[in-house]
Amino acid sequence: MSDPPTLTTLRLAILGLISMQPMSGYDLRKVFETTPMGNFSSSPGAIYPALKSLEKNGWVHGVPDKQDTLRPRLVYSLTDRGDEVLNGELDATVTRDDLIWRYDQMMLRFAFMERRGLARLLAFLEELLTELDAYVAHLEEVHEQTTGQTTVCGRLALEQGIEGYRANARWARRAIRELEGTVECEGGEENE
Amino acid sequence: MSDPPTLTTLRLAILGLISMQPMSGYDLRKVFETTPMGNFSSSPGAIYPALKSLEKNGWVHGVPDKQDTLRPRLVYSLTDRGDEVLNGELDATVTRDDLIWRYDQMMLRFAFMERRGLARLLAFLEELLTELDAYVAHLEEVHEQTTGQTTVCGRLALEQGIEGYRANARWARRAIRELEGTVECEGGEENE
DNA sequence: AATTTCATGTAACCAGTTACATGATTCA
DNA sequence: TGAATCATGTAACTGGTTACATGAAATT
Known about the structure:
The structure is a homodimer. Helices cover 65% and strands 5% of the residues of chain A. Chain A has eight helices and two strands. The first copy, chain A, has helices at residues 9-20, 25-34, 44-56, 80-90, 96-101, 103-111, 118-146, 152-186, and strands at 60-64, 74-78. In chain A, strands 1-2 form a two-stranded antiparallel ribbon. In chain A, helix 1 packs parallel to helix 6 (103-111), helix 2 (25-34) crosses helix 3 and helix 7 (118-146) packs antiparallel against helix 8. Chains A and B meet through helix 6, helix 7 and helix 8 of A and helix 6, helix 7 and helix 8 of B. The structure holds a DNA duplex.
């Protein structure tokens, strides 16, 4: 409860992970240190305060798994409210600002999106693809207009950005094909 | 002078920009708002304090271009020390941590690197390419080992990352070819 | 007994955001 | 004269980093 704090990348990662399986702060640190999710911070000074604030907001709840010890292992799980908040985040529309400022966070959303079902996954990818194509077109225009006015390195750096977004678009198209393939082969399988 | 502060993305962007042309804080904001450099912040609350601290460190120096007015336009340029600091940053080796944690900042370095000469540019791209190839190989291994143990979305998200780094590697190869091409055509042209 | 790993936490610090304040200059 | 733009700045806040502290449990 209380006022809604912004859902940072770290908070989203925590919500997503404990939505798949209840975890302690230490477990979360381990995931961040050892898996490809390692792009997303770690350090006790970040995770424990984040868990506290998520609990204060009533999105997660921690229960000690051994009552007798002085410092019990606190295992956190999503509350009903936390579940709703996570769903709201996963169902949010893809914007250009997401591409430019929050690509990592957006992909993190995708990584946890399976719980929303195949239809939502495909909708997300289509939205992403639309925004990507539009943004690539925009950058190509900028590229044309600035070529000759910039340094060689400036132009190459811009081209690197464009190529990156193009690769992302290719990936999105492939992911859509793959996901559409699964539904045809396995016949409308529901999630979880 | 005084203790060395970490060269954040914003500070690097400021140093790089005023190394090409002396600018006021307002000019910098304009660049960040209107060019593809816009990925790098803006807001007065960031830029003016950053300029102050850079000046306190003796890396830049601001001179009012109209002495009579109460609030003159302060035009900043690099000091000799600032020039050295920027060169040091541009000449730094590319590490895997740069790929994972500071890709944007690394590309920003590249965007300002022309002043270091063609040899340095090529060296940077070779280093980058080596790190990229190694990291892609590592991620492919992770991909193989985790496939089947992850959700479909988790796997796809990882594949997106791999494809992104592959695209960056392709870009680096192309940039090397292009830069090697210029030197052959134009015959060992020196920078500035 | 000593070391490592498990496990949670705090304190100082820092960079950046948002929102606001101030005043000059230019243009309608 | 009133509005928009030029131009610099401050204050409160926030989220994360580094470094440290604490102590239990497991391993050597």
